[in-house]
Amino acid sequence: MKKAIIIFLMVFGFQSILNAQELALMPLPQSLEINEGKFRIDRNFNIQIEGLENERLINGSYRFLRRLDDRTGFFFYQNNDFKVDTASSLVIQAQREGELKIHEDESYTLLIDTLGISINAPTDLGAMYALETLVQTLSVDEDGYYFPAMKIEDSPRFTWRGLMLDPARHFLSVSAVKKQLDAMASMKMNVMHFHLSDNQGFRIESKLYPQLHQLGSSRGEFYTQDDIKDIVAYAALRGIRVIPEIDVPGHATPILKVFPEIGSHTGDYEYVLETWSGVFDPTLDPTNEKTYEILKDIFTEVSALFPDEYFHIGGDENEGHHWDANENIQAFMKQNGLEDNSALQTYFSNRVLEIVEGMGKKMVGWDEIYNPKLSKKAIVHGWRDWEGLDVYAAAKDGYEMIISEGYYIDLMHNADVHYLVDPVDPELSPKAKELIIGAEAPMWSELVTEFNIDSRIWPRTAAIAERFWSAEDVRDVEDMYRRLDRVSLYLEQDGLAHNSSRESIMKSLSNGEDIAPLRNLVNVAEPMKVYTRNPGGKMNHNYYTFKKFADAATADAPDARKFNYLVKDYMKTGDAIAEKEIRSYLKTWEANHEQLLPVIQQSPILGEIKELSENLSIVSQYAIESLNGVNKTDSWKRKASLAVANARKQGGRTELAMVDSLELLINK
Amino acid sequence: MKKAIIIFLMVFGFQSILNAQELALMPLPQSLEINEGKFRIDRNFNIQIEGLENERLINGSYRFLRRLDDRTGFFFYQNNDFKVDTASSLVIQAQREGELKIHEDESYTLLIDTLGISINAPTDLGAMYALETLVQTLSVDEDGYYFPAMKIEDSPRFTWRGLMLDPARHFLSVSAVKKQLDAMASMKMNVMHFHLSDNQGFRIESKLYPQLHQLGSSRGEFYTQDDIKDIVAYAALRGIRVIPEIDVPGHATPILKVFPEIGSHTGDYEYVLETWSGVFDPTLDPTNEKTYEILKDIFTEVSALFPDEYFHIGGDENEGHHWDANENIQAFMKQNGLEDNSALQTYFSNRVLEIVEGMGKKMVGWDEIYNPKLSKKAIVHGWRDWEGLDVYAAAKDGYEMIISEGYYIDLMHNADVHYLVDPVDPELSPKAKELIIGAEAPMWSELVTEFNIDSRIWPRTAAIAERFWSAEDVRDVEDMYRRLDRVSLYLEQDGLAHNSSRESIMKSLSNGEDIAPLRNLVNVAEPMKVYTRNPGGKMNHNYYTFKKFADAATADAPDARKFNYLVKDYMKTGDAIAEKEIRSYLKTWEANHEQLLPVIQQSPILGEIKELSENLSIVSQYAIESLNGVNKTDSWKRKASLAVANARKQGGRTELAMVDSLELLINK
Q1: Can you give the residue ranges of the Beta-hexosaminidase bacterial type N-terminal domain (chains A, B) (predicted)?
Q2: What is the pLDDT of residues A18-30, one digit of tens each?
Q3: I need a surface site. Which of A460, A570, B9, B295 has the fewest CB within 10 A?
């Protein structure tokens, strides 16, 4: 793994350096050399595909031109052969078609000088990434649009860079999935892990057992087999592998609803699709041969739709209550020397692995499948790192691993939290390190719908994508955020609604009133983190539509983040400009409650944030008084401290994200 | 047709009257009686389905609850049987399942009093419309959400209330189509006319002739047969019929690309999918028996996917150039006594009608199919009303008609233009009037993509939906706009992106700068109307993505509309409050150019509106001077008049929509 080498050649004065520094490349390439000069774009910009010319490159070049259209206002039409008679602006040369498999070559070289642009790559996959990098380098000066001269040599640190989508809990239309694939490609992610089945739904058409999608989904919310082919083909054009997951032996209620005879519960028991969140008891019976027959049928049908070599069998969160209560299962364990439920699950996993291997595939499972008796052919998907669990245990024991611990974006942590987690513990042995083939960010969808998903995943996940692609020592949080703000705009230009859908929610909540005061509050409030927004999975029903204040809010609340930086700076330096900006924020917040109150009165749905808004106003007032040098009597201190405590209370299932900074100002 | 009876029972003082007057029902019901009292909503609100209980009512009730969730913040979960043990808030009683066919009963009675709500309807279709009306009556006061007491008796004026979608020119995903169906249902429209084939693409999978969708669409942009079934079922749950159109004998390039042997051009000729807009020459050969064999195959396969009784064969804009140049066709005409191309097309239409009737369907065609020799079984779709053409000619001659003349929403007229067009000429004979079974708004998609379609159709089309549903004498434009502003919010609450997508475009165009000054300009600029934005179809290629200034702009530019009303009022009354508001607008516009200029400099894509922005600033300055009582010298008048003339110039393919008002102020 190469270190990032960033060389600024400061040859041609301030302007070009400024632009080079302002570049917002994400993920940061392994090697970046900024040179003098600019390659200007006019309406004659065109692409020449030399060497390999396949559907992926043609489609990718077409999409690149459309994105350049959007950004420049020109229209760069070319025929689909991308053969240019005259001078070409951009020459793409890939040597061969890349295979969608791990350890494929994804490297590229991108060279921009004043005369033109060239992309060279061993495979079309690398060439496609070069286009993604190129579109991020688009710059502007008084004369118009240009690409700054530079040389980039780039390749990923990890071969498996995934995002997990969960249409089981809240269904995502094909269009919504495609939007995520577009965004993933732009961030050079190459695996979409598709969590297709869980207690809440079975989301894929089965022609063999149609009841699986008919009874296993309501309101027709499943993918037809044509839909799946469409998604897989769309992903492949973007260099993305799609890995299906059918979660067993737990999380399998829809399968049990159709085949109750392979369940572990004894006697009469009705398996009902879950409509709340949580961990539930229904579990397949690992001692029943029919279980394996049915799974073989289902897996064979599903896996045939996904050309990828890997197949995910879930395996998580089986607490074994139904196993414990089943005498036959207990007898089976005794008979076979299976000392506990983990051993029984390993027996199950090894049986399932035989099925998966029999289909010519490799089996992946969440880390509950790990047990020293598990076949070494299994790939362990690490996610647990608490109560003495070591997320790297399987790698240390010789298993290949994918790491998701630290990348659970449903927890709504800020981007920097994930950004600073490395998929590889530096203290692992070289052999164990090599077994970590990559990492994945899972977007569990208990609180996520097609409407709000863009803002739940993006732009945060771009920072995670950088962690998976770029060098280990790329860890400058402030620079990450500087680039992330720009990347957020790029994602919006490419069609994501992570900002605009939040505006829609604010409009709806404001019931036709001016949304500015609500926006002021949203911009400092973050949805409650980890699992506190929805305690025990019981506060929000699955059928709810999630267009509330907490859904308009995001992690990385933008004004809170800026304010926190300002206060940090001000506390260190006492800088007057910082103070002025701090005062401006405080004044806005202090006055905001009075602006928001009439909106709340016209829109009782906002009642849940009335106190939050008032608390913000009050705590801001104390911060202003402190900056003004008020005489801090004991009574003032008591009241100010109460204001800080109140400002820490949740409102509308969000929390103000700059109370620590306010407290610093108050105690100054 | 009943007259609208609006009775305000002013029993309980100001508050309840105010709310009643503020109701934004659209389309306006035939009879509305506002009573005293309120039915309050708490978290126990529930629905009881009595009488008929079918999938449509269950699904509709489920969706109603979700929309009420969104608006109130409660979560109204009910089991899917909608049987309530305790007291029920809303009782739905439909007598029988409505059939999706013309002249079906769609009437309903909605009764709200302080104790509860009841819906009674002869069919579930009427009951569904009652739910749409009910959701619009949701009101708020200091104590929370409630439904005002009222009695509504309602039924549509026309049985065919359509919107035409055109995925041929720019494809629309299944999700995008479903969003339109949701919006249509909320506006009580009941026909989605699906223009599935045109020179630019054949958008439906053919299992019989797979080349039709394979060669007839690029980038996989077609509906699978499963997609079509999904769309038809989704529409049916909302009481919407789906009418497919396969346009012949012109507009049929994809068919000719696959079957060049049935084309009218002689000799070697390559049929190529069009990627520009316009009227093109390729035409089926009506003298070739094979033409009818192939059409029979295609129509039979397509129509089997659409349960509706009607099938649209297009028939428009065949200029017959290839017929004129084909000797065999000329000979055939002579031989069969067909005096001109219209007669030949009628021969063709009658042959096609036999095919359609043979499938058990009724044939609809655009009004070019009309000719006295056309079978009386055909339904004529009127759209032409120029150069001596009478759009009602076919109705006068005894044919059933659907009217689209006056409702071409692709022309980007303001809502009032369409609103004031009645589908029926009052001077028609009673018999001819009866033959007008309804009307349709066509959304031709030369400049319309999945990304911008919401704002091209909505909210404007809600005013047209009112024209199709409500009484003939409901024609108060000012009240229509008052309600339309509210309906726009309802549509946004239900998931349309007609506002938020425009915000996204503005953000992208502003390249990360503050979008406020751009928004100020967008809010007074309207996309050039009729076909002037894209002269001759040659300014914008089909592959273009349409995220420019003109796509952020809409018809009915909101600030221009408000300003025009203010000036009208002020010129009549000299009202001081109006003057103050006028001055506030003028000041903003005058100062706006200076704010926008730095944004334009950072974003050359906005160069196209630099002059527009500057012209707005200058003309506003003259209007201010005029209001200030400047001495209007000849020189001042000349310069002011030049400023007005400049303000009329297009910029970014838009025009300022309040220049007449500015001119009035300047000449005051």
Answers
A1: 24-154
A2: 344 589 999 999 9
A3: B9
